[in-house]
Specification:
By secondary structure, this protein is α+β, with helices and mostly antiparallel strands. The chain folds into 3 domains: 89 residues, Rossmann fold; 62 residues, 2-Layer Sandwich (Dna Ligase, domain 1), CATH 3.30.1490; 106 residues, D-amino Acid Aminotransferase, Chain A, domain 1 (2-Layer Sandwich). The protein has 9 helices and 15 strands. The strands form 4 sheets. A 5-stranded antiparallel sheet has the order 13-12-11-14-15, with helices on both faces. It has a 4-stranded antiparallel sheet with strand order 7-10-8-9, covered by helices on one side. A hairpin with a 6-residue loop joins strand 3 and strand 4. Helix 1 packs across helix 9 and helix 2 packs antiparallel against helix 3. The radius of gyration is 20 Å and the shape is globular. The two termini are 12 Å apart.
């Protein structure tokens, strides 16, 4: 099968592992820098041109960075218009990257979430803080990724200062209740409606964010059938075939904090010893049927 992996850097761990897994299964694989793609939107013969070549893969695996969601999703959509199946659709990628929209969709489906507030005007800070039952609370930039743009406000005064500062910069933010989880969270890796691996991430001393990019550590875990079903449901609500579903343990069970459409493979493969890249390739193979 002829596979295209949309990625800005062929040397990234995740991209390289997908290439290796595809080659191991006998596929012809090409890494395509989606920012260098030109789209021909002509009626009845749409195409994607890359390095002077009109691409015609049999399946596409998107690895779209958060900074370039708009253009990356447009390239994925162009392949869809051409009738090429994609591991994650353009609409699903856009849904997952819009944190507010994603939370609204998940809440509509009854998926457990931290209590979340959203407001535009700085004059509504008091009401926003009340929504999440006061401090401590979490302030999140809607555009933030990998734990960046996430602030823990431990007092009401700190919360008012942080929220006010972000809004003065015209930054869109969410305010969430602080879920005490001892600096731990869980990522479930969902591929094709199944949890193929899961890990518990632990934040370094003095840090509340457990993201590996923030210095956290990870270990493989087995999820209960209930929590696996929660992760699968969250991915399905956003329409993602490949997803990293981040969850926090609470006294009432797990709550979903984010669903990532381009989850990194290094942490999950290193901690679990499982061939997650191979699972993604096998999923891509099935997209043709």
């Amino acid at each position: 099968m002829k596979l295209a992996i949309l990625s800005l850097n062929p040397h990234l761990y995740s991209t390289a592992r997908l290439v290796d897994a595809a080659v191991d299964r006998g596929h012809d694989v090409q890494v395509v820098n989606y920012l260098r793609c030109t789209m021909d939107i002509t009626s009845k013969r749409p195409s994607v041109v890359y390095s002077g070549e009109r691409l015609r893969p049999e399946a596409v695996i998107p690895r779209i960075g958060a900074t370039y969601t708009f253009y990356g999703a447009a390239v994925v959509r162009q392949f869809e218009v051409m009738g090429v199946p994609t591991a994650n659709t353009s609409d699903a990628i856009a849904r997952s990257r819009d944190k507010l929209r994603a939370l609204q969709l998940l809440a509509h489906e009854g998926i457990g979430l931290p209590v979340t507030g959203f407001a535009h005007d700085v004059r509504d800070i008091d009401e926003l803080v009340k929504v999440v039952s006061g401090a401590p609370l979490i302030v999140k930039l809607l555009e933030g990724t990998q734990g960046r743009g996430v602030v823990l406000a431990e007092t009401r005064k700190a919360a008012e200062s942080v929220i006010g500062a972000f809004r003065q910069l015209d930054a869109n933010i969410l305010v969430q209740e602080y879920v005490e989880a001892d600096g731990r969270d869980v990522r479930a890796f969902v591929v094709g409606g199944e949890v193929v691996a899961a890990m518990e991430r632990t934040a370094p001393a003095g840090e509340f964010r457990a993201n590996l990019h923030q210095g956290g550590t990870a270990r493989a875990i087995e999820l209960s059938s209930e929590n696996e079903a929660l992760a699968v449901h969250a991915a399905e609500v956003l329409g993602l075939g490949v997803a990293g579903v981040d969850m926090l343990p609470t006294d009432d069970g797990y709550v979903v904090i984010e669903v990532n459409s381009s989850p990194g493979l290094e942490g999950i493969e290193t901690s679990s010893g499982l061939d997650v890249a191979g699972a993604i390739i096998r999923y891509a193979e099935g997209l043709q049927t």
